Amino acid sequence: MGFLDNVKKNLGLGDKDHHPDESAQQQAAEDTAAVGVSASDTSAAEAAAAQAAEQQEAANAAASQEAHDVGLEPEDPEVRQAGQEAAVEAAAEAGQPGRVAPRVTEVVVEPGDTMAGIAAQFNVDLGALIATNADTVPNPDAIYPGQVLRLP
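^ that's the sequence the OP posted. Answer follows.
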């Protein structure tokens, strides 16, 4: 069998029993099924992210309330520990094992980082990031490795 015969066979031109419409329909059905699975995975991930955000918000509120009740400032180490414990309790109540990761509040700039890249990485608004660091970063286009940025 020659090269052209192989090409014809692969394209379905040399096989009389081959029906291109059927294979196209089969491929379309497979593609549709794959998109359906992808959409369900995406919606499940979005639901999990929303649930995690709610848990984090509840933990933050519980820690803030506890700090207020005992007269502590929110940045005190005691408050941070209480916040972490409240986060664990909120996760346990929601049926999720383990700890909820604490919220990142500062970032150390690494070589190649940009304000826009950092904002995207931590899912914060670029304008808010620039405004939060206006006192230490006079030019948002000129950040340097080792510089510490606060997240809004």
